[in-house]
Amino acid sequence: MKTYQADEKGYYGEFGGAYIPEMLYPNTEELRQNYIRIMQEPSFKKEFDQLLKDYVGRPTPLYFADRLSRKYNTKIYLKREDLCHTGAHKVNNTIGQILMAKKLGKNRIIAETGAGQHGVATATVCALMGIECVVYMGEIDIARQAPNVARMKMLGAEVRPALSGSRTLKDATNEAIRDWINNPVDTHYIIGSVVGPHPYPDMVARFQSVISEEIKWQLKEKEGRENPDYVVACVGGGSNAAGAFYHYLDIPEVGIIAVEAAGKGIDSGESAATSALGKVGIIHGSKTLLMQTHDGQITEPYSISAGLDYPGVGPMHANLYASGRGEFISITDDDAMNAGLLLSKMEGIIPAIESSHALAILEHRKFKPEDVVVINLSGRGDKDLNNYIEYFNL
Amino acid sequence: MGNRINKKLKEEGKLLSIYFTAGYPKLGDTVEIIQQLEKNGVDMIEIGLPFSDPLADGPTIQQSSTAALKNGMTTEILFDQLKDIRQSVSIPLIIMGYFNPMLQYGVEAFCKKCQEIGIDGLIIPDLPVDVYHEEYQETFEKYGLINVFLITPQTSEKRIRFIDSVSNGFIYMVSSASVTGAQSGFGDGQQAYFQRIADMKLNNPQIVGFGISNSETFEQATKSAKGAIIGSAFIKHLNGHGVEGISTFIKTIR
C-alpha cells in the first residue's frame, strides 16, 4: 500500500533523510536506534498519557463552531489545541521528548525557538522534570518577543542569543545544532517541529499524532464517523499539521489542506509560502523544499506570524505537496488577521495568528453544506495581542 | 594522471593544509591567497565555498562565510576565478563546502567543472558517507575526484572501517567533539584518540583538523597523523593582516 508515513530511513518519498555532519552522527544514531522502542514501552506510554491528561489538559475539545458553520454554510469543527497548557500544541512534543531524554539518560536539554512558543514549551517541561535547559533564540527575535523571553527565564531556562547569519529562527537552529555537536554525550536536543534530520520529523509527528487520534473518536461521537471530509492546518515547519493529518494520511477520502503564510503576497518578496516558492534542497539536515537563492543559499522568509516564517517545511509536507496528496493554499497577512478577528467576534475565541491562517481558508475555498471540516486551532492569541492591537488600532 | 592528493600523501614528512573562505576578505582575493600559500610552502589547500548556514563551523568561519556572501561570492564566480589556477599552482586543491549549493548547481555538473579546473577533491561535511556511497560515489569517481570524510572521537570503529573502505585519499580526523575554531592545545584524551586511530592501521592516511592554530598544536596533531589542517586561525590572521601577512603566518607554524 502506498503510504505517506516515513520509511525506516526517514524518507517521505524523496524527502527527509539525515544530511548531517559526521559530528552529529552518534547523537542522531542513538536516537534513531531507540526512539520507536522507547515510545512503545508501556512505562513510557503510561507516563506520557498521564502527563498529557493531568498536566497538558488533554483531550482538548473538538468544538462544533455553530455560528461560523452557518456563516460559511458547511460543518466546521475546531480542534482546540489552543487550550493546551502553555497555549499551543507545542507542549505535546516537548512532553514526549523530555521523557525520551530521561530514558536516554540525558541531563541537559537544548532547544531552538523563533517566536518563543517552543522555547516556552521546552522550558516548561524542563522545569517540570528539574533538568537544565538552554534555549537558542535569534537576537532579533529576542528583541521582538520580550514576554516569551521573560517566561522562559521565569521557568528557569537560559536564553542564549543567536548572533550569526540573519539572527532569527534558522540561525537559532544552527546554534542549537552546534551546541549539540559540542555536547554529544549528556545533551538532548528538543527540536520543535517536524524538521531536522531523521528521526526527528517522524518522532515529532508521532508525539503530535495525539491530535488526530483524538479527532477520530471525538468526531465519531459527534458525527457518527471517524473521518472528516477535510482536515485543515497551518504549516510553518509543520508540527501541528503533522499531528492533525497523521492518522488521516493514508485515508484517501479525507482531504488534507495545508495552509502556508503568503506574507505580503507570494510575489512580494516578503513571503513564507515554501511550497510555492521553495525548491528541493537541504536544510537543517533534511532534504525538503526550502526557500533559497539560485545559488543554494538559504533565504529569510517573512510572515506576520513568527511561527510560520521558517524557510523550509517538514519533509512529510514536502511529500504531501509533491505527490498531490495535500492541497496547499497560501494566505496573506491581511487575510489571516481578518480571520483571527472574525473568530474572536463570532465564537469568542482569540486565535494565534498562525492558526488564523488556517481559519482564513474559509473565505478562500468553497465547501459543501454537508462537508465536515476540521480546522486545527493550534494556539491561542494571547502572545499575539500586540500584533492585533497594532494591526487593528485596538 | 594520478590524483595530486595521492601523490602528495606519498611524500615524506608531515603535511600542512590550509583552509580559507573564498571571497574573503575581498571577493577577488581567492587566486592570490592560493598562490601565496603555495609559495610559502603549504602542501594542500581547502578552498571554502561559503554557505549561509554552515552548521559545523564556529564563529570565525561563519563570519567569513557571511562576509564572503555579502561580497557577492557564488559557485559560478568561484569557478570563474579558478579557471586558470592550474597555470600557476601545482599543489592539491580541495573544495570544501556544504551540500546544498552543490545540489543546486547540479552534482554532476559541479564534479565536471571541478575536473576541468583541476580540483582534486571535495570535503562536504553534511553529505554523509552512506548517502555518498549509495548515490554519488560513481559520479565523483567518474570525474577523478577524491571525496574526504570526517571522523570524530565518537565515531565507532565499525563506522571508521566503513569510511576507510569508501575513501580513496585521506580521512579528515576531527580533533574533538566540537565545531571549528581554535581551542587551547590538545589534552591526553585527544592524544589517546590520535594514537587509537593510528593503531587501527587504516588504508587511508589521516589528517587532523579543528583546533589547530599554531606550531605547538600542529606538532601534537601530526605526531601520529600524516598532516594537519588550519582554518579558523588562518582566517583570523587574514582578518588582521590581510593577504600580505600570509608568509608571516605560515612561518609561525613550521
Automatic annotation (TrEMBL), chain A:
Reactions catalysed, as given in the entry: (1S,2R)-1-C-(indol-3-yl)glycerol 3-phosphate + L-serine = D-glyceraldehyde 3-phosphate + L-tryptophan + H2O
HAMAP family: Trp_synth_beta
Family the entry assigns: Belongs to the TrpB family.
Record-linked PROSITE patterns: TRP_SYNTHASE_BETA
In-chain residues carrying the UniProt-annotated modification N6-(pyridoxal phosphate)lysine: 90
Cofactor(s) essential for the protein: pyridoxal 5'-phosphate
InterPro entries, sorted: Trp_synth_b_CS, Trp_synth_beta, Trp_synth_beta/beta-like, TrpB-like_PALP, TrpB-like_PALP_sf
Enzyme Commission number(s) from the entry: 4.2.1.20
Positions of the Tryptophan synthase beta chain-like PALP domain: 57-379
Subunit details: Tetramer of two alpha and two beta chains.
MF terms in GO: tryptophan synthase activity
Keyword list, A-Z: Amino-acid biosynthesis, Aromatic amino acid biosynthesis, Lyase, Pyridoxal phosphate, Tryptophan biosynthesis
Organism, scientific name: Pseudozobellia thermophila
Function: The beta subunit is responsible for the synthesis of L-tryptophan from indole and L-serine.
PANTHER family membership: TRYPTOPHAN SYNTHASE, TRYPTOPHAN SYNTHASE-RELATED
One Gene Ontology cellular component annotation held by this UniProt entry: cytoplasm
Designated name of the protein: Tryptophan synthase beta chain
TrEMBL record, chain B:
Catalytic site positions: 46 (proton acceptor), 57 (proton acceptor)
GO cellular component: cytosol
Origin: domain of life: Bacteria
Classification via InterPro entries: Aldolase_TIM, RibuloseP-bd_barrel, Trp_synthase_alpha_AS, Trp_synthase_suA
CDD domains: Tryptophan_synthase_alpha
Leading EC class: lyase
PROSITE patterns named in the record: TRP_SYNTHASE_ALPHA (PS00167)
Enzyme Commission number, as recorded: 4.2.1.20
Biological or metabolic pathway of the protein: Amino-acid biosynthesis; L-tryptophan biosynthesis; L-tryptophan from chorismate: step 5/5
Family annotation (Pfam families): Trp_syntA (PF00290)
Reaction catalyzed: (1S,2R)-1-C-(indol-3-yl)glycerol 3-phosphate + L-serine = D-glyceraldehyde 3-phosphate + L-tryptophan + H2O
Task performed by this protein: The alpha subunit is responsible for the aldol cleavage of indoleglycerol phosphate to indole and glyceraldehyde 3-phosphate.
Name of the molecule in the record: Tryptophan synthase alpha chain
